[in-house]
Amino acid sequence: MVIGKFTRTSDGWSGTIQTVACQTKARFVPNDKRENERAPDFRVMSGHCELGVAWRRMTQGEPAHEFLSVLLDDPFTSAPLNAALFESSKPGEANLVWKRSQSSETVTDE
């Protein structure tokens, strides 16, 4: 499910995250204060508020493509949201995608 559309900037990405509950402008800003190699590569910001973090990763398979593994957090959600930012077929544009984890309960009609 696509929950955001982003455009490449000189040092990261800028766009909008939109879900049923919210819509906010956000940007992926390089993390210039990485203390170690496990620290995130980007901070996800909305204004002066930090929404989450992101790490550079490579897809498996041939050819491999870079993407950002994103962790978004909100005090009003029960758990952080895992997402990924993939560049689209149009250079300089990217989609933020989210997939519900397999361990989540499924609601069914009986």
User: Would you tell me the structural class of the helices and strands?
Assistant: mainly beta
β-strand amount: over 45%
Please work out how many helical segments DSSP would assign: 0
Largest sheet: 8 strands, antiparallel, barrel
Which of globular, elongated, flat, extended, rod-shaped describes the shape? globular
Low-confidence stretches: none
Helix-strand string = EEEEEEEE
Count of DSSP strands: 8
**Terminal residue distance:** 26 Å
Radius of gyration: 15 Å
Proportion in helices = under 10%
Mean pLDDT, as a whole number?
89
| Spatial strand order of the main sheet | 1-2-3-4-5-6-7-8
How would you describe this structure to a colleague?
With 110 residues, the protein is mainly beta. The protein has no helices and 8 strands. It has strands at residues 2-8, 13-18, 23-30, 42-46, 49-58, 66-72, 81-87, 93-98. An 8-stranded antiparallel beta barrel has the order 1-2-3-4-5-6-7-8. A hairpin with a 7-residue loop joins strand 5 (49-58) and strand 6 (66-72). The two termini are 26 Å apart. The model has no long low-confidence stretch (mean pLDDT 89).
Task: Tell me briefly what this model is.
The chain contains no helices and eight strands. The chain starts with a strand and ends in a 12-residue tail after the last strand.
Topology overview:
Elements: E1 2-8, E2 13-18, E3 23-30, E4 42-46, E5 49-58, E6 66-72, E7 81-87, E8 93-98
Antiparallel strand pairs: 1-2, 1-8, 2-3, 3-4, 4-5, 5-6, 6-7, 7-8
